[in-house]
Queue: 3 jobs
Job 1
Amino acid sequence: MIHQYDVVIVGAGIAGLTAGLQASETCKVAVISKVYAPRSHSGSAQGGMAAALGNEEDDCWEWHMFDTVKGGDYLVDQDMAEILAREAPERVIELEHLGVPFSRNEAGKIEQRRFGGHTRNLGEAPVKRSCYASDRTGRVIMDTLYDNCLVRGVKIYNEVFVMSLLISKGKCCGVSGYALATGEPIVFHAKAVLLATGGCGRIFKTTSMSFAATGDGFAAAFNAGVALEDMEFVQFHPTGIYGLGILVSEAARAEGGILRNGKGDRFMERYASTLKDLAPRDIISRAILTEIAEGRGVEGSDYVYLDLSHLRKAMQEQKLSEVTSFVKTYLGIDATKDPIPVAPTCHYMMGGVPTDAQGRVLADGKTQSLPGLYAAGECACVSVHGANRLGTNSLVDLVVFGKRAGKDISNYVKENPLQLFPTDAESAVATKIDSLLASTGNERMGEIRSEMQRTMTQQCSVFRDNNNLKQALNKIRQLKNRFGNIGLTSKGKAFNYELEDALELENMLNLAEIIVFCALQRQESRGSHYRNDYPERDDAGWLKHTLAAKVQNGLQINYKHVTVTRFEPKARVY
Ligand SMILES: Cc1cc2nc3c(=O)[nH]c(=O)nc-3n(C[C@H](O)[C@H](O)[C@H](O)COP(=O)(O)OP(=O)(O)OC[C@H]3O[C@@H](n4cnc5c(N)ncnc54)[C@H](O)[C@@H]3O)c2cc1C
């Protein structure tokens, strides 16, 4: 089946819907989602969205920009961080006018709370900068955008799996994939395509991300020849529910929650004397694992406690209702009485598809654009998060750069004719699906996936070193070979989840290889990328972005400079 639109947006999270809503002012827009659209991961965001509104205490965009740059360990492109911080307040107000029910303070203004790494006056003390709606911020923003998109006539396609970008004469002119319900190929022919497919946390064993976070958008761009940027920077959130990885939002510490080791000590005082439990996530994740490695985990095990028992008031005021209900549901714990067992969980990808400030994809990561292709949200890397993203800075990234992409797409669509798309677009999808369904190899996907997740978690997560990374690279390459010999047991076409699993696993294996490869090259420690064998940050050698591109016999690494405008790199003390 072939559909035709001005613009097709892959991904119905907050980035995709923001861009879609904006573009719908002048364009015919389709939004595609492999899951039922309102189940996109953006709906799980709890804590909030950073913007220097100054509703609670003095704040300004320069401080927000500084915190973003410092939080990202100076790998942030500062011109982009400036846009993020400057435009954030306007975007929050705009969301409010669209109907987002933000929590309010006694003066009737949008209420704001603290979050890790956000400070006043360039690092003096924590500042209340995060705008929120109870602990369901992402849910209400996404639902509001979704409603507004429907009103504007944006067409949403649920349960369509996008496999490839269509490129013709050097321009992107659509996407191809298949309908999960029927297994039949679908082509979306358009003047412009926006990738807004979210992250790829499922590569790791423990993650806070949803099952859909398999990195299909990164992979589609990479396969189309786009170099991926800064893929070695993977964020581990310090407080995943132990054993499950489900997130206990940073909002819990923002409201006063305290991390304690097995001895009951508030250990963060030793690692970040000013911000303590609200230091950036990379620092806290390493602190937790250091406590555990030095024998101060709870009862000799590999977790610590998050103590909320003194926060009855916040809980009664519904500021942490999701958090408390999660731990009740999954652990049977009453957070007003008992501490919550937590450990780091894979949470966010700082790297991704390189774009400029308008969301235009840069194929070589530097200057060469791929006309018609845009990216926004977690799958994109406009480089505002550098080596470590601050909490609540993703939602604001989605709306600031999602909106900018939507605007640029409107102009692009006006000025460019519809390009013919490759004639074999549908048949290529059918061939791929048929060959997977016909596969009879003796490798099982579940085993390959588990081994990939175990390898990535044990050898390429919070602490890394040369030996482990080399072993991980070999292992992932072996798994890629084994994937060539898989056999699908389910042969039907209707809702064949084994087929979908196969396509996702292929993408994840490719991305795992890229992450490990980039991590192996970077011989320094910066933000979320910590090398035991190179424990210092090395600005002389490594203040540069990594670009990983596909070449005939593997991967090619390139680098590009980091844009420094206002804040010269300094030691990161909190
Ligand atoms: C539990 C949790 C809590 C968080 N809390 C916060 C917070 O409080 N504040 C904050 O700033 N950030 C938070 N984050 C981070 C933030 O929520 C995410 O980075 C962000 O929501 C990603 O949005 P997105 O629009 O890029 O993509 P997503 O919301 O992840 O949506 C991806 C979309 O792409 C679609 N898709 C993917 N692959 C395909 C394919 N092959 N074919 C078709 N469709 C496809 C999916 O169906 C989905 O619609 C949190 C993240 C998690 C996991």
Note: The chain has a mean pLDDT of 96.
Job 2
Amino acid sequence: MTVVADFKINRVQRSKLEDISLENIPFGKYFTDHMLEVDYENGEWKTPEIKPYQPLQLDPSLAALHYGQAIFEGVKAYKDEDGNPSIFRPLDNMRRFNLSAERMQMPVVPEEIFLEGMRQLIDIDRDWIPAKENHSLYIRPFMFSSDEAIGVRPSDKYKFLIILSPTGPYYANPMRIYVEEKYVRAVEGGYGFAKAAGNYGGALLASAEAQKKGYDQVLWMDAFEHKYVQECGTMNVFFVIGNTAVTPGLDSGTILAGVTRDSAITLLKEQGLKVEERQLSIDEIISAYEAGTLKEIFGTGTAATISLIRELRYKDYTMKFDVENWTIATGVKRRMDAIKYGKETDDFGWLYKI
Ligand SMILES: *Cc1c(COP(=O)(O)O)cnc(C)c1O
């Protein structure tokens, strides 16, 4: 692996932070003063640069725009009550990023760039991490092919960047979910396990149609039988049946292995629940609902952490839940937040100090 030389750092003259307030800012709209940019060429990564946040100049023939070699990650940094910043489980995001890279025939990004670059960038923009509870700094690492030529083949050149966006409270209202039977997100042998840009473009139509019918999101089903549950929009999904939390397993390669999913599994076990990662059919869900053993359904992801699901619609059948009385999903959220904001000890080694 290439050993990376020192970072090249070029700081802004004046921070944009003077012009904006970090209270109640919407998700993904504002970006910090700096960004990280690194080029890959001739089989090696060049010197990483941290520079003022700015537009990229791209050739119209840019390979990524035509053939979709583009992957990304979503990570968050938090400040504890004393103002000390840390990143939540960034090594797990780095591993997943490099699995996505491999699937899309892109180069691996070494730790000295991915993690050290993220650390240095956040250190420089640390004043942008909101100090309030329910606020955080969203971190978006991404990579795309940058050959300037048309023709379907892996690129010789790539760009890796990290941008940062401060974000306010994410009021995730309990969701109404439509079980999707017409469109599919991922198929065995495909690239559903990768955080690759095309997975999201391809999912927009299903979401739009579900929204037209009055639902917030779709519950994706398997591509062959439309029978087994996969994910809920861009979140992993858990069903609490009796004293067991069931979430779809990762074996099929059709599900994104969420870091929040993994954290939730740990915290559900800590709460004394049994956790099963396995196939779960819509029939089993309906049977449990009718038997009164289906207690809670929730989605997990970095942006909203835990999102409660108050209604599930399958064909003509509607399942409704009284989320007010739920304790399991809300317990997981409370505990996860307490660890992130340094209110409870980081028993699982999830925080990476900056
Ligand atoms: C990012 C993502 C998730 C959630 O992953 P986290 O690591 O928990 O943020 C789940 N499903 C899809 C499709 C995703 O893109």
Note: The CA atoms of residues 57 and 333 lie 41 Å apart.
Job 3
Amino acid sequence: MNAPSKPNDYSAYPDAEGRFGGFGGRYVAETLMPLVLDLGKAYAQAKADPKFQDQLKSFNTHYAGRPSPMYFAERLTEHFGGAKIYFKRDELNHTGSHKINNALGQILLAMRMGKTRIIAETGAGQHGVATATVCARFGLPCVVYMGATDVERQKPNVFRMNLLGAEVRPVTSGTGTLKDAMNEAMRDWVTNVHDTYYLIGTAAGPHPYPVMVRDFQSVIGIEARAQMLEMEGRLPDAVVACIGGGSNAIGLFHPFLNDDGVRLIGVEAAGHGVSTDKHAASLTGGRPGVLHGNRTYLLQDDDGQIIDAHSISAGLDYPGIGPEHSFLHEIGRAEYLSTTDQEALDAFQLCSKLGKGKIVVMNLCGRGDKDIFTVAEALGRKI
Ligand SMILES: *Cc1c(COP(=O)(O)O)cnc(C)c1O
């Protein structure tokens, strides 16, 4: 194991086997093992290649629109009368969320590996849209697996993917949601590995996906850190992000891991409440187990069967969480709270708990146009 060089060097993880302490790893069928080992090797080479990094940087700048702004939310700060609140504006990226950061990195890797067909899973559809978009950009065929239930409730994104030339395959197995779509995508991958690359949308899955997705999303935290130093002359007191599988959160957190004075706060979706059976708070309301190739905190029943996650936000209803978060949770470096559907409307009150003179950075990971119908229904309004 790559022991950290100093006790608080949390960024040294994972080890060569993809383990973050007791989490992560490569829990895959024998047929899948050569694929993930091959991918691990290809990613390690790409990561160390300045040409790959330059190419990614160029697409991030000219195609995705990075760096995203850091905005001082003056009126919200006044409203709460406490800490200065900043928004990291990742919803201004091309396709409207942070997903493009990861989709760009992985498709460049896929092409480097000589793959000619891209598959992905999607829940709410933001990752599917980002993947379909980069596939259209580079002229690669794209198949997106999406739970049949999600296809039904996220029609605008299904239509967008189709317009971009992607084939959306509804998955009816299980409960027809994100975890089933991911199972189906893994099945496709193992069957078509000669030409196919599986572009996973969050910091989960078998090693090297959690570290790879984290690296591609770390552009958020790297920018946020530099922007704070430039705008405030110091680091923030806390950074806050929502958690589905945990990719935007780990991307924001990672560059701050060794800044001891910066609190890292992840917010899980508590749905109707963590004491009910309708939530998506894997760390708060789950326990460790194995799903989709890694060991992490999961929502499961007494027999270890995965329980379906619920959140009013379709993008947050994953029954697991990236393994690095499970690790940061257990060692206490990051704090994980949860917010109910109802509280989500007032979620920013979290920021006001810190007093005057403090600085909080909140990651705005997506613009949520697709959610207006859900919000209207929750508010009892008709569009
Ligand atoms: C996908 C998505 C999420 C959840 O995914 P993470 O991997 O936890 O970041 C959250 N917000 C938006 C806008 C998304 O598109």
Note: The longest strand covers residues 263-271.
